[in-house]
Design goal:
Rossmann fold, SAM-dependent_MTases_sf, transferase, transmembrane, glycoprotein, methyltransferase
């Protein structure tokens, strides 16, 4: 039964609500002091607060009046809160859909065993994945590009296996990343300079890139200073923790592989794609892997192949491979590239660069080529768990993109052409205005939002990428996730804005290691997944990928948020529910939460 509130009660609650928001402001300030130490300890918080003179004034433009009877009016609110226990220490690096033991039960052909294989419902872990002993807050960017605390990813194998290639070095309590790689032992910067002599990287034409088989993502890390955002992927394999290292460095990356399933990205997403000795058999399966790269490559985009079999006549002895094998491998690559109507722009040393044609005007002859099998699907962006095919994705109508940063807020071609049913230019621009307002309100609540404290950010229901566009900064990046069950497929728009993202179904675990994101944003995600899967599982997955002391912003209707708040009260999170920036009468609210610091074998939060 609902409890009726008197006028006096309402005034009291109003005062309490103001006090709560005031406390929240101070809470985030203290949190910032705590986290800046890098060790999750608050030894000098009081002294820092006194010396710096924290300003925790309530923002006058926000109305924090109580608007709802609160949790006391919810039926069944007296029920005991479920407490989620820590998982065993063995699960500190658990990746539910890339579990090594489960992977080994699948065929090795075409890398099937390295693809996503999620645990069935009966085998799901419903516990809190712990951080390892000694875990500390990662270094801030740009220091994180070069240094990772050893305790956060305590794996030394790569320091031995890749020692001469300058990938990674162990120095005391940190790993150092000199910027080298298998194909660029002298450093990624010099390697990128060589690529930039052919590919226009300095004027905003090339903004998004795909790195296949990325290693520790040094290529993506060093592209950052050139304002290029790389989406890097590599399998969870014998090179333990390479993607984990990439994310600890503050570089966008996911666990992934080119196997039998299409890549979880939309058609025409990337301005550039790259393989540096990535061990992908590009000539195999009738050129299917190159055709998949062609699908996700924008017209006019570039493909870089560095390593075998390029210039095999000179390099076959160093590679210790038969000449005939390398010759045949390069022949197949050249043949498929020609079929795709790519133009070779450069070949020198062990590097070759092709460019995809801007349109198919120069490719008319392939229409009569019996080898040219064109994809029949009407929706080339329908890729989630869809089998890869050896077929050519047809060119779209010519659509010009503006250079970055202009394209961030310009109307994307998918919108202006009417490709997304029911979405007008006005609706898109209104969405942009709304997200600028939302982000402005977020910054009033959490003043650390754009300071560099949060480097790796995820938007779990990204829409058009409005949140990421409003918060865009050299200090951070956003993984824009478009749920596969979303009413409209908007990930193509996200990429046309010069942002990056991925498709995902939140009824399953995300393709990443634990503790890889500093801040997670979820806009109406729980309403979207209502009756689709268990909210507990979604929140446990959020906890798995969120770093200790990381923040969460959940925007949804008030009834949904009260239920969510109840669940997270058993998850070692601290949370506050605040009003919409337009006032207390708006049914949409915002739930702010912070994950407590604790490590394996801890009996309580510290």
């Amino acid at each position: 039964m609902a409890i009726k509130s008197s006028s006096a009660d309402n005034k009291t609650r109003s005062s309490v609500q103001i006090f709560i928001v005031f406390s929240l402001c101070c809470f985030f300030y203290i949190l910032g002091a705590w986290q800046r130490s890098g060790f999750g300890k608050g030894d000098s918080i009081a002294l820092e607060m006194t010396n710096s003179g924290a300003d925790c004034n309530i923002v006058p433009s926000l109305n924090f009046e109580t608007h709802h009877a609160g949790e006391s009016s919810i039926s069944g609110s007296s029920a005991k809160v479920k407490t989620f226990e820590p998982c065993d220490a063995l699960y500190t690096d658990y990746t539910p859909c890339q579990d090594q033991r489960r992977a080994m039960t699948f065929p090795r052909d075409s890398m099937i065993y390295r693809e996503r294989h999620c645990a069935p419902e009966s085998e799901k872990l419903r516990c809190l994945v712990p951080a390892p002993k000694g875990y500390v807050t990662p270094f801030s960017w740009p220091k994180s590009r070069d240094y990772v605390p050893y305790a956060n990813a305590p794996y030394k194998a790569l320091t031995v296996e890749k020692a001469i290639q300058n990938w990674i070095q162990y120095e005391g309590e940190v790993f150092r990343f000199p910027g080298g790689g298998t194909q660029f032992p002298q450093g990624a910067d010099k390697y990128i300079d060589q690529l930039a002599s052919v590919i226009p990287m300095g004027n905003g034409t090339v903004r998004t890139a795909l790195d296949t088989g990325c290693g520790v993502a040094s290529w993506g890390a060093y592209l950052w200073s050139r304002n290029v955002r790389a989406m890097s992927f590599a399998p969870r394999d014998s090179h333990e923790a390479q993607v984990q290292f990439a994310l600890e460095r503050g570089v966008p990356a996911v666990i992934g592989v080119l196997g039998t399933i299409k890549l979880p990205y939309p058609t025409r997403a990337f301005d550039m794609a790259h393989c540096s000795r990535c061990l992908i058999p590009w000539g195999a399966n009738d050129g299917m892997y190159l055709m998949e790269v062609d699908r996700v490559l924008r017209p006019g985009g570039y493909w870089i192949l560095s390593g075998p079999p390029i210039n095999w006549k000179i390099n076959y002895k160093a590679w210790q491979r038969p000449k005939e094998e390398l010759q045949e491998e390069q022949r197949k690559i050249e043949e498929t590239a020609k079929l795709l109507c790519w133009e070779k722009k450069y070949e020198h040393g062990e590097i070759a660069i092709w460019q995809k044609r801007v349109n198919d005007d120069a490719c008319r002859s392939r229409q009569d080529d019996p080898r040219a099998n064109f994809c029949k699907t009407d929706d080339t962006d329908d890729v989630w768990y869809k089998k890869m095919e050896a077929c050519i994705t047809p060119y779209p109508e010519t659509r010009e993109l503006q250079v970055f940063p202009d394209r961030l807020n310009a109307v994307p071609p998918r919108i202006s052409s009417g490709s997304i049913s029911g979405v007008t230019v006005d609706a898109y621009e209104d969405d942009n205005r709304q997200w600028k307002k939302h982000v402005k309100a977020y910054k009033r609540i959490n003043s650390l939002l754009d300071t560099g404290r949060y480097r790796n950010i995820m938007d779990m229901n990204a829409g058009f990428g409005g949140f990421a566009a409003a918060i865009e900064s050299q200090k951070l990046w956003v993984m824009n996730v478009v749920p596969t069950i979303a009413e409209k497929n908007r990930l193509g728009v996200v990429y046309e804005r010069g942002l990056i993202g991925i498709y995902h179904d939140w009824c399953e675990a995300f393709s990443t290691y634990p503790r890889t994101y500093d801040l997670i944003h979820a806009n109406h995600l729980f309403s979207l997944y209502k009756n689709k899967c268990n909210a507990d599982d979604i929140l446990l997955e959020m906890d798995r990928i969120l770093r200790p002391e990381g923040a969460v912003i959940i925007r949804d209707d008030v009834d949904t948020l009260i239920k969510v708040k109840r669940i997270i009260s058993g998850m070692r999170w601290d949370s506050k529910l605040v009003d919409h920036e337009d006032g207390p009468l708006v049914n949409e609210k915002v739930l702010i939460a912070v994950k407590q610091y604790w490590v394996t074998n801890s009996t309580s939060a510290q």
